[in-house]
Amino acid sequence: MRLPKGTWGAKRLRAKLQFWAKRRIQTKVTEMAHFLGMRVSMVNPANTSALAFDGSGFVQRNKKRDVAVFATGKTYHADLGASYNIGARYVLRSIHKAISEKMWLSLEAKDPSLAKRTYWTLASLIRVQQALSLQS
Fold first, then answer.
1. What is the pLDDT of residue 59?
2. Are 31 and 75 in the same domain?
3. Rounded to whole angstroms, how far apart are CA atoms 61 and 124?
4. Could you tell me if 35 and 64 lie in one domain?
5. Other CB atoms closer than 10 Å to residue 55's CB: what's the count?
6. 93 lies in a domain?
7. Residue 52 belongs to a domain
């Protein structure tokens, strides 16, 4: 774990303890899910709550940062949009692994937002499923 240069003493120790506690919580939740027969997968959280799940781009947030206003004018809770995008990234990753690279590149040609994983949203998943249903 790398800390910023100049961090020392109690501040450094506190940062390390917070990191270890976070990791322990993730491990415990993973173990509990496996015990119950669930699948667990880590998904990159970058831009999940910053992007609108309908594919309209970045959202505006209020001061409390709990409400997101889309570019289309829709208003949703930011965590709801983030959960949609996280679920979509999980499914898109499994689709990406299952199909050939040639087919994925043809999908990327139709939808350039698929080239960068941090921009995958629920709308991307819907477009991919529509394109795959047309091809088969």
1. 95
2. no
3. 22
4. no
5. 19
6. yes
7. no
- 19 and 79 inside one domain: no
- The identity of residue 96, as a single letter, is H
Tokens at 123, concatenated: 């709308």
Average pLDDT value over all residues in the chain? 89
Cβ-contact 89, 43 below 8 angstroms: yes
DSSP the chain: ----TT--THHHHHHHHHHHHHHHHHHHHHHHHHHTT--------TTTTTB-TTSS-B-EE-TTS-EEE-TTS-EEEHHHHHHHHHHHHHHHHHHHHHS-HHHHHHHHHH-GGGGSGGG--HHHHHHHHHHHHHH-
Does 128 score more than 60 pLDDT?
Answer: yes
State pTM to two decimals: 0.78
Residue 49 lies in a domain: no
pLDDT of res. 7: 66
Q: Is the domain of 80 the same as that of 119?
A: yes
Residue with tokens 């088969």: 136
Quote the domain boundaries for residue 98: 60-135
* Distance, CA of 122 to CA of 96 (rounded, Å): 15
Whole-number pLDDT of residue 1: 56
